[in-house]
């Protein structure tokens, strides 16, 4: 896939997937962000830091798919190459981790238990999708390269030192 096509496809998928999961649905669950901000000390700044850092990591992960993998995160337009650079040297599923962090950051902003529950449901869905679809698909597509990567890099809790594969 050409780089421009990969970027365009990734941008569309960014809107369709994390845009809905971490943007539209939390927006609806917080009455269109009209809930009052948390009055508990420290929750609002911590929530904002979590959202901003996670959003930056999410954008970085999407860019890696387009530039390194020459494809998109969308299952219908996968990468030509296994993406293992950048943030992927620390955690195998940075997009999912970032989306969950954005949701939890919003939960902190609004002291919203509804968003905490939504994050838990989203986490179960993401872990199930990874286990039952993504990992078997990547193992078939990339074989031994993916298996070595899967064994070396944690799926959900980032490692501090980068994998040097």
From TrEMBL:
Q: What is this protein called?
A: Isoprenylcysteine carboxyl methyltransferase
Subcellular localization is given as:
Endomembrane system
The superkingdom listed in its UniProt entry is Bacteria
A matching Pfam family: PEMT
| Membrane topology (UniProt) | Multi-pass membrane protein
Which Gene3D superfamilies does the UniProt entry name for this protein? 1.20.120.1630
One Gene Ontology cellular component annotation?
A: endomembrane system
Naturally occurring in which organism (per UniProt): Mesorhizobium delmotii
Record-annotated membrane-spanning stretches: 46-63, 91-109
Assigned keywords, A-Z: Membrane, Transmembrane, Transmembrane helix
Q: Does the keyword Transmembrane helix apply?
A: yes
> Predominant location of this chain?
membrane
């Amino acid at each position: 896939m050409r780089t421009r096509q990969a970027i365009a496809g990734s941008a569309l998928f960014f809107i369709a997937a994390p845009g809905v999961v971490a943007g539209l649905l939390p927006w609806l669950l917080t009455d269109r962000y009209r809930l009052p901000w948390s009055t508990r000390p420290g929750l609002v700044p911590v929530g904002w830091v979590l959202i901003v850092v996670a959003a930056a990591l999410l954008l970085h992960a999407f860019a890696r798919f387009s530039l390194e993998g020459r494809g998109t995160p969308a299952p219908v337009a996968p990468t030509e190459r296994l993406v293992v650079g950048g943030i992927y040297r620390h955690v195998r599923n940075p997009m999912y981790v970032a989306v969950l962090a954005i949701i939890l950051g919003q939960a902190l902003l609004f002291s919203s238990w509804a968003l905490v529950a939504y994050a838990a449901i989203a986490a179960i869905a993401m872990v199930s999708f990874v286990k039952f679809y993504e990992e078997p698909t990547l193992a078939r597509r990339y074989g031994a390269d993916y298996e070595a990567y899967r064994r070396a890099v944690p799926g959900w809790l980032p490692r501090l030192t980068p994998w040097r594969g």
